[in-house]
Amino acid sequence: MEFLFDCGWCGTENVVFAARGGFWNNRFYLDDFDCWWCGGNCDTPAGPWTPAE
Q1: How many domains would you assign to the chain?
Q2: pLDDT truncated to tens, each residue of the chain (53 aa)?
Q3: For residue 11, what are the contacts with CB-CB under 8 A and spacing of at least 6?
């Protein structure tokens, strides 16, 4: 599933894919992501996350 996150360095909106996991396959795992605009490495914020459409 894809989620929307803002870059902590430049503020650009990023669409990031998170893999499903967990016993019931109802959790998503994502550690950090690289901004497509500035290339900065960003931490994933605490949930809830906004799904990308």
Answers
A1: 1
A2: 999 999 999 999 999 999 888 888 888 888 899 999 999 999 998 888 889 97
A3: none
